[in-house]
Design goal:
heterodimer; A: mainly alpha; 12 helices; B: alpha/beta; Rossmann fold; 2 domains; six-stranded mixed β-sheet; 26% strand
Chain lengths: 256, 360
């Protein structure tokens, strides 16, 4: 057990150090901060303008909700670029052979990688959250703290689910470009499943709606801590890890 | 300790390994020798737990690779054909990472990493990023990662590929040092590698082990003749007359040109293997007034044994990696040993030159 933990920590550290040494991570961070902060400011401006036109609006509350809802697109845009190289790079450097012949399970490798890339996302989100707090701390009337916390939990869960699926795609792809394209395709399909459900009618509509990442993310951004939403995200995370471990095991025998 | 029994590997319709059996004991360096595509890498990958075998068993330090893969992985150091390196890590950082993966405790790790760095002559490069290293240094980092956790078994897939001659010597010496208390198995298609490094050899071709034995035994399997090469100064007639008089001399061949202008000439004398004629040859020739400048016994070259064993097995229409016509008889050959065409063999100097060299 201690060995497994040590292994996960080893992979985690290696990946995280790799991100901080790569210029790509800094470029991604810059783009993310620029877009996130712009989104936040533009939401405030939008709602302020609406209030100015005479409507009774709680500007900070509505701005925060819209911002959290809008973060869906940003997370979907940025996450695949973080996950694309997780396994594709290992394959490129032929280091899967090192991992496969070390006393470490595929699960531990996948989990270590996911934790590392998720931690990177966490560090990306910290300045954005500080920015939000600076704006919202003096808000009148004060914002509902629950929305802030549950909404951000939603962002982290959504990011982890997309990263986990991206990890799986990366374990299948031979190069990073292919991995990022396939990840975009996969999360787009998962996001738009509900459209297919609407077309096919019941019971597909209900099933696909429950599987939709968007629906459950929106629930959380409204400040509703729904257990089924959390379970769905966790399921996607575990599924991604499981499929990654299986694919590494399976494709090891076919790719040399 | 490596024990391989009846190992077979089938990829779809291709049989990569067929009933391979061999073993290597602690303190022993086993060379897995064979042409490219013979099944060396497949064998090593199975031993390292990277690939499962279709049939058969392979035990490392008593643990079966399929049944107890984690126990095996802790006890092996494995250098694949292409060293598995992370280009953005420093040498030291990478070895620390591998040490953690292999389960080295935080207390032992710095010491082990420094030991591996010192063993592989990487002290100057330990803070360098791996992508800035030359191929030779990368290969050494590859070896360092295989030994950093001090495993009892080391598996090296073509460890000297891409190294310059100086580095090759260093790596060979390193392997010999490591083998003092470990089992080492290395694959190569370069013959001197086996000759200079290994205690035992398993010759593998088309997925089958065609010979496995201590190197000395393998050479002794071909005792059909014994050759001496002599550098003499004197009349050819006198020399030939003396040679005719020595019973046990089967034939001889002049290696120098025919003209008599050159006072010194070389001759290769083929004797019956049971007759230890070195002393008599030297005595009789010198007694007859011929100056003997150099004399050496030519052992049977591993190259010839290898060619014989591997070419016998070739199916008639398959692509032959080495030219079988090159395995010509030593006596009639115009060159001292057969020289296959593969450029990597150019350096393959026949290293089996004998031990009773005379230089009066």
């Amino acid at each position: 057990m201690i060995l497994i933990l040590n292994n996960i920590v080893a992979i985690f550290r290696k990946e995280l150090q790799g991100y901080f040494k790569s210029s790509l991570a800094y470029i991604i961070a810059g783009v993310f901060w620029l877009l996130a902060c712009s989104l936040f400011v533009s939401e405030i401006q939008l709602w302020t303008a609406q209030k100015a036109s005479g409507q009774m609006i709680d500007v900070p509350q509505e701005s925060l909700k819209s911002f959290l809802a809008g973060m869906w697109w940003l997370v979907m845009l940025i996450m695949p670029s973080l996950s694309m190289g997780l396994y594709a790079e290992e394959r490129r450097h032929r280091t899967l052979e090192l991992l496969a012949t070390s006393p470490i399970t595929n699960w531990a490798v996948a989990l270590g990688k996911l934790l590392a890339v998720w931690t990177l996302f966490f560090t990306l989100m910290v300045p954005v959250a500080v920015f939000e707090v600076l704006f919202l701390s003096r808000a009148q009337p004060p914002i509902t703290v629950g929305i802030f916390w549950v909404g951000h939990l939603g962002i982290f869960l959504l990011a982890a689910a997309i990263l986990s699926l991206g990890l799986f795609v990366s374990s299948l792809a031979d190069n990073s470009i292919l991995a990022i394209i396939l990840t975009y395709a996969l999360i787009l399909v998962l996001s738009l499943l509900f459209l297919l459900g609407e077309r096919w009618g019941e019971p597909w509509a209900a099933i696909f709606e429950q599987l939709s990442l968007v629906k459950h993310y929106v629930t959380l951004t409204q400040g509703v801590l729904d257990a089924s939403s959390v379970i769905l995200f966790v399921s996607y995370i575990v599924l991604g890890l499981f499929l990654t471990a299986q694919s590494i095991d399976l494709f090891r025998f076919q790719r040399h | 300790m490596i024990e391989v029994e009846h190992l077979s590997k089938v990829y779809g319709s291709t049989t990569a390994l067929q009933d391979v059996t061999f073993e290597a004991k602690p303190g022993e360096i086993l060379g897995l020798l064979g042409p490219n595509g013979a099944g060396k890498t497949t064998t090593m990958r199975i031993l390292a737990g990277y690939l499962p075998a279709t049939k058969g068993t392979a035990r490392i330090a008593g643990y079966e690779v399929h049944e107890q893969p984690m126990a095996v992985r802790q006890r092996i150091g494995y250098l694949p054909e292409v060293p598995p390196l992370y280009p953005n890590m420093t040498v030291e950082g990478f070895l620390h990472f591998v040490g953690r993966l292999k389960g080295l405790s935080a207390g032992d790790r710095p010491q082990q990493v420094q030991w591996a760095i010192a063993q592989c002559n990487l002290i100057e490069k330990q803070k360098t990023l791996i992508h800035k290293l030359s191929k030779g240094f990368r290969q050494r980092v590859g070896i360092a990662q295989a030994i950093v956790h001090n495993p009892p078994t080391i598996i090296l897939d073509e460890p000297t590929t891409g190294l310059d001659p100086r580095q090759i010597i260093d790596v060979r010496n390193l392997i010999k040092t490591l083998a003092e208390d470990k089992t080492v198995i290395l694959s190569t298609h370069i013959l001197p590698e086996v000759n200079m490094t290994c205690h035992r050899v398993a010759i593998i071709n088309y997925g089958k082990v065609v010979a496995t034995s201590p190197l000395a035994d393998l050479k002794a399997q071909q005792p059909d003749q014994l050759n001496y090469e002599l550098d003499l100064q004197g009349s050819r007639e006198v020399i030939e007359k003396e040679l005719k008089n020595i019973s046990g001399v089967l034939t001889w061949k002049w290696l120098s040109p025919q003209e008599q202008t050159q006072p010194r000439q070389k001759v290769r004398v083929t004797c019956h293997p049971d007759a230890a004629l070195g002393q008599q040859l030297a005595h009789d020739l010198v007694y007859a007034g011929i100056e003997l400048h150099e004399m050496r016994r030519l052992g049977t070259s591993l190259e010839e044994i290898y060619l014989e064993l591997t070419t016998q097995e070739l199916p008639p229409q398959s692509e032959v990696e080495v030219d079988p016509t090159q395995s010509s008889d030593l006596v009639t050959s115009s060159t001292p040993t057969a020289e296959p065409q593969d450029p990597e063999w150019v350096n393959s100097t026949p290293a089996d030159r004998g031990d009773d060299e005379v230089d009066p």
